């Protein structure tokens, strides 16, 4: 499949509309490699990952974007994270009774988008209600409500690949007042299979055949988890001595599994004593993965 694990930015030369296109292949396969999610959860997780990349590509900042879906039904959480280097990771939490065909978000489901800059004070969060079963529609609602700029979002996820497309009208007068409506109508003609199969250049050329579109050089997209033994140790310190000692008595060791990548971190009694005694993170023992 052409253009796998790449993100393209593009713009229309004759009117103020810009867009992004992304396809996840190896990135998506690695994200799924340690997960056994039901099909609708898997699909939504892939859509969220691709959407987070699209949104990050439209920003000028150094940091991380969090796209979080909170449901009140069997699906409790989907979280996708993308940084300014287009490194992605994602996780989901759900109950055993999650439907096998489709997922509803519940009456009070929410979509949260948060930006975390490198400076601890750099943080922005927007929240919109989730209605129906469509993440793309919720994202379009977010753009209309939070940015007052209309956007069109297309998302398609399968077991092998995820492809996503976004176009957004930018501020400013247009010499072609019908351009936005025309571009939307043209996207209505695009089939899901075409979105999944066509490379970015082919898609833009065929869908917007009569328009002048400038396609920029692609940027690589990849799966990358930031978990570390240092970070896990810092989290365990926050639990406090009493709780950690209780776990040691019950289980013999403290084990933590990263929700994003599935990596396991093990701490025996000596490790726990050391991390509680000072800020030094104990090195992994030979039996720790």
UniProtKB/TrEMBL annotation:
SUPFAM superfamilies: Hsp33 domain, HSP33 redox switch-like. The keyword Ribosomal protein does not apply. GO terms for biological process: protein refolding. InterPro entries: Heat_shock_Hsp33, Heat_shock_Hsp33_C, Heat_shock_Hsp33_N, Hsp33_helix_hairpin_bin_dom_sf. Keywords: Chaperone, Cytoplasm, Disulfide bond, Redox-active center, Zinc. GO terms for cellular component: cytoplasm. One of its GO terms (molecular function) is unfolded protein binding. This is Hsp33 family molecular chaperone HslO. It comes from Candidatus Macondimonas diazotrophica. The lineage of its organism: Bacteria, Pseudomonadati, Pseudomonadota, Gammaproteobacteria, Chromatiales.
